[in-house]
Model the fold of this input.
Amino acid sequence: MSSKRSDASNASETAGRRRPVAVIDVGSNSVRLVVYSGKTRTPIPLHNEKAICALGKGLERTGFLNSQGITQAFDTVARFVSIARSLGVSRIDALATAAVRDAKDGEAFAKAIEKRCDIRVDILTGKQEARRSALGVLCGIPDADGIVADLGGGSLELVQVGGGHMSEHTTLPLGLLRLTEASDNDRVKALSIISKALANHKWITKSKDHTLYAVGGAWRALARVCIAQMNYPLHVLDNFSIERNQAITLFDVISRLSPKSLEQIKGVSRSRLATLPLAAAVLERLLEIVKPKALVFSIYGMREGQFFKSLPDDVRKQDPLISLAEEIARNAGRPPAAGYETFDWMSGLFRDETARQRKLRLAACLLRDVWWNEHPDYRADQAFLRVLRLPFLGLGHEDRAGLALALFFRYGREPSDPTIKQAQALLEEGRLQRVRTIGLAMRLSYALSAGAPKVLQKTLLEVAGSKLVLTIPADDPMFKSGSFARRLDRLADHLGLTAKIERA
Done:
């Protein structure tokens, strides 16, 4: 009986984790709903919607929320709650940030929403908001080391992170709505306000030569402009990274671009154009004071931090990349166990790997057969583009390009498309050789096993001197014929070795 109750309890817990969860972010400028598909290690949005309510407009002058924004926010939150419930969410976390926190009528506004929508609204303190933002970055980049900077409409949150933990933090009234009003939208005046506010927090200089992680919609828009200005080959915002001096130069140029020039840049919404120069000014001054070695733009922030905070401990401890690769494989009907077998089987080819290299190779092996249901002529392209553009990998762009190319080579194609050649250009020759080896080895592994579990365990792949030796069972009909000999030749030729098949 106890065993049956335990099984039922586990099944119920698993089902509960598969139910969607919702976060409603009542910010100073916008109100946003994100419904995540379930309590998995990687926050995958099922629905994402935003409305500009400008609750914080005029707050610096009046001390009260924008009355027109209040009306819009009531209707928006009511809609968002209805959407969340219709999607069967297991919980709704409604969070109010700087504008509601600082306004004289903020608490009354939150209580009115609670009564109208039958939900709880948590008004985050500055510390809580800062820590949620940092948790969001740590959700995607567990080894983040430096300062997380989250720029919203009402405030700027700064948090020191390292070793998976948070330490120093502060919240400053430098949100774009407030800064625009306080400076009369004058860049020189804004820079003076920013400098004075940052001067009181000396701890931020402790992250010199570390990394500054930029979070928030305004800075994501800024990243799009940087990508366009640089003619950067990979149009993916997450973990887009640039060196400090290059960033400062870019921001100085961007802050002086005319609205007409900015309008020409694809992906930058009109609502962001007016505040883009000030967003660049805040980040430029931060870079000058903090002096990080690099600037990294993160698509994870406060909402993902709230999601991450709500996860069970065992899920939070999972690696985000491997967890996501396993989830994608399961959803494609391919058991992750086959990926682990493939990883172990080819490990003899990779004797001197770093931990990071091992993780990326494992992720590739887990994703080996995910695109089985695509047309054979397009599998390589679909695998490459999907991995290259997947928004929730928490990978640097070189790692992302390498993983995408490994899956491309797994399907046996040679690069011709400009996008593929651009991704190759991100990698040094040695790295490119490695990802091709992974791809060709995965291709060989599938030819041997047809993706079935426990088949590869019957074979052995190893380097012996100048030969690449594949040992297979002599009397097993599965290995009497097939394309594996040809694919072994291809892998051996790539490695500069001679292929040999031994039957034992």
